[in-house]
Design goal:
38% of the residues lie in helices and 21% in strands. With 320 residues, it is α/β, with parallel strands linked by helices. A 9-stranded mixed β-sheet has the order 1-2-3-5-4-6-7-8-9, sandwiched between helices. Strand 1 and strand 2 (43-51) form a beta hairpin. Mean pLDDT is 95; it is low at 1-5.
């Protein structure tokens, strides 16, 4: 099979999955409102708000390095960890696990960072905003967001990705951001979002998904729970996570997994299959897989290796 044929197949597959999910077409650049501003070491942190895909508001932190740009950009999707009271604040180091605070580390290295709350997290919870948990309400409201969409013939993944692409569009059109050097990053739940968005938004120049590369087949065989946005009727009968990673080719993509992490257990198999597509496009070295011993949680080693890879990738060419 030629590289040209492979490119055609990936393009067709990508469009088929987009249509299956019913993703919204690209819209106009979203306007945003600055709610707070604070000067930090090497960057400015802005609390902003902009419109979501269903007329709702998306709170986010925007980190801008010192200088005049244009800067590479990265959209960071936060983790889940059963802590729906934590979202954007954990990414920027204001709450939660410091090993999730990718935002400041990247902003201090010259990246413009956008870290939004995903639906039903932190300030997008219907009953309580902020970083204080709300007991069972946090779970059931998230569960309802999934169920109600399924009843209407839609999915939570469509909502998550439509909102994610609005965030990308905001970064792309910011005057200090280099639109040709915008990537996506996420761990766990954020890694799931990063895989889907990297596959289906070809304007993203690079991506990293940590603790998320695991096939539906592996999860179902092992009885591993599915994050709610992954519940897409009929999806696993037609597609796999491997297909999504293939659709990221030929752009640089880092998969981070661990040998005892049930959420990235067969990442090496995904890598091997997807690398065939990358190789057909002359970009085999652009699919990178870092596999560690240990479990799901990030370690300092993984954290800093992700930072280093993003810095190196943003400085180099992002297309063959």
């Amino acid at each position: 099979m030629t590289g040209g044929t492979y490119r055609m197949d990936c393009t067709a597959l990508r469009e088929e999955i987009r249509t299956y999910l019913g993703l919204a077409p690209p819209g106009s650049p979203p306007a945003f409102q600055v709610l707070e501003e604070e000067e930090c070491e090497g960057y400015s942190r802005f609390l902003i708000s902009y419109g979501g895909s269903e007329g709702d508001e998306i709170p986010a932190y925007l980190l801008l390095p010192q200088g005049s740009g244009p800067f590479p950009g990265v959209l960071i999707h936060h983790q889940h960890n059963g802590e729906r009271h934590l979202g954007k604040s954990e990414v920027v180091g204001l709450a939660g696990d410091f090993l999730q605070a990718f935002g400041p580390a990247l902003a201090q290295r010259g990246f413009a960072v956008l870290a939004p709350d995903s639906i039903c997290f932190e300030d997008r919870r219907p009953n309580r905003q902020g970083t204080v948990p709300d007991g069972d309400n946090d779970f059931f409201q998230h569960y309802n967001e999934m169920c109600y969409r399924l009843l209407r013939g839609s999915t939570l993944m469509k909502k998550v990705l439509d909102d994610a692409n609005i965030g990308f569009n905001l970064l792309k059109n910011h005057p200090l951001v280099d639109e040709a050097r915008i990537g996506v990053l996420g761990h766990s739940y954020g890694g799931n979002t990063a895989i889907f968005q990297m596959a289906l938004n070809t304007e993203l120049a690079f991506g990293c998904a940590s603790g998320a590369a695991c096939t539906y087949g592996q999860k179902m065989r092992a009885g591993t729970g599915l994050e709610m946005a992954l519940v897409i009727p009929g999806f696993s009968a037609r597609y796999e996570l491997t297909d999504l990673v293939k659709c990221a080719a030929p752009r640089p993509f880092l998969l981070v997994s661990a040998t005892e992490d049930k959420y990235s257990l067969d990442a090496h198999i995904i890598e091997a299959e997807a690398r065939k597509t990358y190789a057909q496009l002359g970009a085999a070295d652009r699919l990178v897989h870092h596999r560690y011993g240990g479990g799901h949680a990030l370690t300092e080693e993984r954290f800093w290796n992700i930072i280093s890879w993003l810095v190196d990738t943003a400085r180099g060419p992002t297309s063959p």
